[in-house]
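Need C-alpha cells for this chain, all 210 residues.
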Amino acid sequence: MSRGTVFRIKGYKDIFKCFVDNKLLILTTLFLIIGIFFGVFFYDKYSLLKEIPENFLNGFIEKRIDATFFKIFFDSFLGSMIIFVSLFAFGTSMLGVVFIPMIVALNGVFYGSLVSFLYAEFSLKGIAFHTVIFVPTVIFIIIGTILASLQSLDFSFLLAKHTFYEDSSKPIYENFKKYSVKFSLYILLFLIAALIDALISVNLLSSFNL
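Here are the C-alpha cells for all 210 residues:
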C-alpha cells in the first residue's frame, strides 16, 4: 500500500516538474487553443468573425488563381513575416509578456473562424478545401508561431526580471544574440510553409470552385 502511495506521489511530482519546465510552451499552446475555440464557438455571434475570413478567402483565391509559383511563394512568406516580426519585436521589450499571448490568441481566433466559415458556407467542399489547401501549410505556420512565441515570452520575461530584480547595468547582449539566432532558425519553418503553399496553390487550387 505504501509503495503504491509513494509511486503515485512520485508520479504527481514528475507531472508537476514537467509542467514547470514547460510552462511557457503550455501557456502559449493554451492561448492558441483558446483562440481557436473562441473563433469556432462565437462564429455565429459576431459578424466580424464572418466578414474577416470571407474577405481573407476571397483575397487568397484571387491572388493565387492565375499567379506564378514564385509570386505566390513570396507573397505567402511576406504575409507570415508580419506575425514573425511582431513576435520578435514584442519579445525585445517587457510589453511582450502581455502582447505575445494576445497575438497568439488572435491568430487562433482567426483560424477558428476561417475553418468555421469554410464549413458553414461550403459544407463538404469547404472541408476538402481546408484539408487540401490550408492544413499542410498551417501545420508549419502553427509550429513556427508557437516556437517563436515561446522564445519571445522567454526573452521578455528575462528583460522583466533584469529590470525589476537584478542590476540594470548587467549586460544581456549574449542572451539577445542567442534570441536572434534562434529566431533566424524559425524562419525556415515559414519558408517551408510558403513553399508548400505555392506548390499546392499552383497545382490544386484551380480544382476547387468556391
